[in-house]
Amino acid sequence: MAQLYIGNKNYSSWSMRPWVLARAAGIAFEEVMVRFDFAEPGTQFHKTLQNVTPAGRVPTWVDDDGFAVWDSLAIIEHLADRYPQAHVWPLDAKARSRARSLCAEMHSGFGSLRSLCPMNIEAFFPEQGRGLWAEHEGLRKDVARIDELWSEALAQSGGPWLFGEFSAADAFYAPIAMRLSRFSLPVSAAAAAYIERLLAHAAVAEWTKAALSEQQYVPEDEPYRKTR
């Protein structure tokens, strides 16, 4: 069976994307969770991954024949090629290209949101969110752009997901929805409703439940807490 190497579910937004997509698409895989302890060389994190991927990072997908693919966007494309029946991307050609554009923009953009509001599923930071919102124009611009992307896609597709049926685009934005929720950042009514639907999706809810059960504290991923 294929394997998906991931980091802690509470923190690992990159791991969440292919995991949620594969679950939602019904693609079978074995999960291998590697605890985030990568600050120093020679830790269990590095030892586990050194013979799996030359990148030494998660997520990494390993086919049942041992072929490895790393980076969340590359994994999504690999799954689309390997499991065409899963409909990873929208069937319509233009919708498929637009979905890829949304994923690519998410993959390389929104730096302020990423750095200021890291994913932390078990914690809620509304006070920090209000302060960050007031202080950082870049954060406001990132959220406005995300809201624009979502609202436009939902209006064109008719929902409930960005391109009608659940696709890679929705899986890619699940960690963004988690950040916006945990930091209580303001969005439009359409975006707020989409966040609610996305967090309630079966695959996202399964990931969230597992994240809450981890009860592992990784200091390097905790800019706003000193303890759990």
Outline of the structure:
By secondary structure, the chain is of the alpha+beta class.
Beta percentage is 5-15%
Number of strands: 4
Name the CATH architecture of the largest domain: Up-down Bundle
**CATH class wording of the largest domain:** Mainly Alpha
Output the structural class: alpha+beta
Q: Return the domain count.
A: 2
The helix-strand sequence is EHEHEEHHHHHHHH
Helix content: 40-55%
Ends: how far apart? 35 Å
> Which term fits the overall shape?
globular
User: In which order are the strands of the major sheet placed?
Assistant: 2-1-3-4
Largest sheet: 4 strands, mixed
Here the CATH topology of the largest domain equals Glutathione S-transferase Yfyf (Class Pi), Chain A, domain 2
Summarize model confidence as the mean pLDDT.
Answer: 95
By oligomeric state, this entry counts as: single chain
Any idea what the radius of gyration is? 17 Å
Number of helices, counting only DSSP H or I runs of 4 residues or more: 10
Low-confidence stretches: none
What features would you describe in this structure?
- By secondary structure, the chain is of the alpha+beta class.
- The protein folds into two domains: 90 residues, Glutaredoxin (3-Layer(aba) Sandwich), CATH 3.40.30; 117 residues, Glutathione S-transferase Yfyf (Class Pi), Chain A, domain 2.
- It has a four-stranded mixed beta sheet, with helices on one face.
- Helix 1 crosses helix 10.
